[in-house]
Specification:
The complex is a heterodimer of chains A (68) and B (191).
Chain A lengths: L7 H25 L2 H17 L5 H10 L2
Chain B lengths: L1 E3 L2 E4 L5 H13 L6 E3 L1 H6 L8 E6 L4 H13 L2 E3 L6 H6 L4 E5 L6 E6 L3 H8 L2 E5 L2 E5 L2 H12 L2 H13 L6 H14 L4
Parallel strand pairs in B: 2-8, 4-7
Antiparallel strand pairs in B: 1-2, 3-4, 5-6, 6-7, 8-9
Helix pairs in contact in B: 6-7, 6-8
Classes of the chains: A mainly alpha (68), B alpha+beta (191).
């Protein structure tokens, strides 16, 4: 089977371009819609981030220390 | 979302993170001034990402005042994750204290005394967010943008800055961002 090599730099560049494009589209959605509409969607992300964690205090503090 | 003078009015539905923040700042506001900085500033303005901690800066205060504030937080069933005692010493030694509600670890509030010129300016020039009849004081948007773009610079921070620039277009003062960029260059070592 022929292996295809992906250029890492190009991959990251493309990934960042997609992220930037999403930030742009989402910010326009926030600007052009009622606060209640965008916040309902935003809250799903925020609340799910908080609910999925069952980390202990010790684990959390250790993790924060390791982070730059 | 409405922007005027030093106020932003947001008629959003509250997330768990918003409720936690409002309860925390309502508890400490009798004891101290404060300003919320960093990620939560972009989140309250609608950025589509979560965060497990919120950064808050308070002016340096004495041991007695600090004790009164901590006692009030404990009464409201907040607890400090990183120490049960010597709270003032931690803050005074430039170590941030993290507070969460009892029985939880996240979300938590990372609190520290203002320790440099930039943090003092953040406190002085804070702006008010009116949300569901409550108030939260956050850092001036221009300072947040400059700090995220010039100092923090991670992809997440650059995206946060971009979001703030876009949602607050027309309210943001570009000259003020440049002014803050200059101040940051004077304050931080750019090696």
């Amino acid at each position: 089977m022929k292996r295809s090599i992906i250029d890492r730099k190009e991959f990251l560049k493309q990934n960042q371009e997609e992220r930037d494009s999403f930030v742009q589209r989402w910010a326009e959605f926030v600007r052009n819609n009622n606060d209640k509409i965008w916040s309902r969607q935003q809250n799903k992300i925020i609340d799910s981030t908080l609910k999925t964690s069952n980390i202990t205090k010790e684990e959390y503090l250790k993790m924060k220390k390791k982070r730059p | 979302m409405r922007f005027y003078e030093k106020t932003i009015e947001i008629d959003k539905e509250l997330s768990e993170l918003d409720r936690f923040t409002i309860e925390f700042v309502n508890t400490i506001k009798k004891h101290t001034e404060y300003v919320i900085v960093s990620g939560y500033v972009s989140i309250i303005l609608g950025r589509s990402r979560g965060s497990e901690d919120i950064d808050i800066i308070i002016p340096k205060m004495n041991e007695e005042k600090t004790k009164e504030m901590i006692e009030e937080l404990l009464k409201k069933r907040f607890y400090c994750l990183n120490t049960e005692k010597d709270h003032f010493e931690y803050l005074n030694d430039k170590v941030a204290l993290r507070f969460a509600k009892e029985g939880t670890v996240i979300p938590n509030m990372e609190m520290k005394f203002a320790k440099n010129k930039i943090e003092t300016i953040a406190l002085k020039n804070k702006i008010r967010v009116k949300i569901k009849g409550k108030e939260i004081y956050i850092s001036q948007l221009e300072l947040q943008i400059a700090f995220k773009e010039q100092i923090l610079k991670s992809p997440k921070d650059i995206e946060d800055a971009k979001h703030i620039r876009l949602v607050a277009k027309g309210y943001i003062d570009d000259d003020l961002i440049k002014e803050y960029e200059g101040l940051l260059h004077e304050t931080f070592n750019y090696r």
